[in-house]
Structures are given as structure tokens and as C-alpha cells.
């Protein structure tokens, strides 16, 4: 398997210091129940390494997943969970802002938005925080499989307009179910993390593995005679 080692190496809470790591980091932010853990599992090619739940607010810490000793995928706490007290929300917000402001190895932030809905006030606030800390976030429009193909462009435009994106800002429609958008996501992770050819070759293999897996799934379905 190309991704040989995945390790939840660092977990920090609201009272913890931001760790000084030596590997490049890419972070993933989004409101509760936007599909962040599912996306991270898809990137790691693991079904349930990052804990997923139908109950929002599952991620309450900042989790650092070490990938092949090459980089960290950083899972930030979900925001906007209504059943959490305002004081807890404020603490989570400060923790996220502190990480964005002080991490020396953070290379890029991917902001997840549910493609079915207009960006919320919390989505816009998070977008502004990310920009204010010197990043132009990659927007990942999740739950692509939940809408009709004919609705995709309309909803992409809704998300872009809601966040006030520029024409050159990147938005990737993504489905954790079909893995559509996964290859493009890896290419962007690649572009922000690469330091040398060894890392480049490893991530290229990850992308190739995703392609081959998708081809195998198509061939298996075709060969089964299914008429879905």
C-alpha cells in the first residue's frame, strides 16, 4: 500500500500549546457535520481512522495525522455546533485562531463548505480568519453526491458568491462517497507540501493509487452485469 504509515501523532485541546513540528502541515476546517472526517479518511485511504459521526461536534481537539513521516494532515474542530455552550464555542474559536496564527509549518488551509447550502455566517467568519492570517484557502464543496449533476454549477456559484471568492480562487467539488475530487485535492496538497523529489514521488504514487482504485471499481461494476 502506498500510504504505508498513518498515525494520529498529536492531539491538542484548548489549554494546550501549539506544537512546533518539523514536517509541513495542511489543515482542514469546516462547520460541524460538513464531512471533514470523511474527507480526511478518504485522503488517508482509511475507512474510519478519523472518527466520523452523525452527531455534529465530534472533533473537539486539533488532531495531527502523520502521513508516511512526510507531512501532517491537521483536523481542526468543527464550528457552529448549536448544542455547545457559547463559552465552549469561544474557546474552540480561540484555539483555531491561535493555531492559524502561530503554526510555523502550516502551508495551506482547506475550508470545507456544504455544497447544498449558502455559506453560513460562521463559514464567512472562518474564511476571513484564514485570509487574515495570510492564506488564500482552497474551498472544498462537500457532499457533492447529495445533489443532482444539473445543480452542481449553480451551487458552486452560490458558494463562490457567498464567500466573495475571486475568479482565481480554487473551489473543488468533492464527494467522500464517490471520491470525486480526491485526485484534485491530492494535487493541491502536493503543491503546498513538496520540499524534495522523494516527497514528490510518494504523493504522485498516492494520486496514481486513487486513479487505479477508481478504474478497478468501474471495471468490477461493468463486469458484474449490473444495470443500475
From TrEMBL:
Belongs to the TRAFAC class TrmE-Era-EngA-EngB-Septin-like GTPase superfamily. EngB GTPase family. GO terms for cellular component: cytosol. GO terms for molecular function: GTP binding; metal ion binding. The keyword Hydrolase does not apply. The keyword Nucleotide-binding applies. GO terms for biological process: division septum assembly. Its cofactor is Mg(2+). Necessary for normal cell division and for the maintenance of normal septation. The lineage of its organism: Bacteria, Bacillati, Bacillota, Clostridia, Lachnospirales. It comes from Lachnospira multipara. InterPro entries: G_ENGB_dom (IPR030393), GTP-bd (IPR006073), GTP-bd_ribosome_bio_YsxC (IPR019987), P-loop_NTPase (IPR027417), Small_GTP-bd (IPR005225). Residues 22-195 form the EngB-type G domain. Keywords: Cell cycle, Cell division, GTP-binding, Magnesium, Metal-binding, Nucleotide-binding, Septation. This is Probable GTP-binding protein EngB.
Amino acid at each position: 500500500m502506498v500510504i504505508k504509515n498513518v498515525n494520529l501523532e498529536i492531539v491538542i485541546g484548548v489549554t494546550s500549546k501549539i506544537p512546533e513540528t518539523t514536517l509541513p502541515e495542511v489543515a482542514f476546517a469546516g462547520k460541524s457535520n460538513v464531512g471533514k472526517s470523511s474527507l480526511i479518511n478518504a485522503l488517508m485511504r482509511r475507512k474510519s481512522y478519523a472518527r466520523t459521526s452523525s452527531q455534529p461536534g465530534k472533533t473537539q481537539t486539533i488532531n495531527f495525522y502523520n502521513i508516511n513521516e512526510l507531512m501532517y494532515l491537521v483536523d481542526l474542530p468543527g464550528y457552529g455546533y448549536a448544542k455547545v455552550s457559547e463559552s465552549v464555542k469561544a474557546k474552540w474559536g480561540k484555539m483555531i485562531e491561535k493555531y492559524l496564527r502561530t503554526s510555523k509549518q502550516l502551508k495551506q488551509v482547506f475550508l470545507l463548505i456544504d455544497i447544498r447550502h449558502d455559506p453560513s455566517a460562521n463559514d464567512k467568519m472562518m474564511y476571513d480568519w484564514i485570509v487574515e492570517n495570510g492564506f488564500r484557502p482552497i474551498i472544498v464543496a462537500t457532499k457533492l453526491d447529495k445533489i443532482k449533476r444539473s445543480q452542481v454549477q449553480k451551487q458552486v456559484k452560490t458558494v463562490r458568491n457567498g464567500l466573495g471568492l475571486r475568479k482565481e480562487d480554487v473551489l473543488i467539488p468533492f464527494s467522500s462517497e464517490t471520491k470525486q475530487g480526491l485526485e484534485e485535492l491530492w494535487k493541491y496538497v502536493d503543491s503546498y507540501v513538496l520540499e524534495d523529489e522523494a516527497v514528490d514521488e510518494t504523493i504522485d504514487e498516492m494520486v496514481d493509487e486513487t486513479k487505479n482504485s477508481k478504474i478497478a471499481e468501474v471495471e468490477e461494476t461493468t463486469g458484474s452485469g449490473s444495470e443500475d
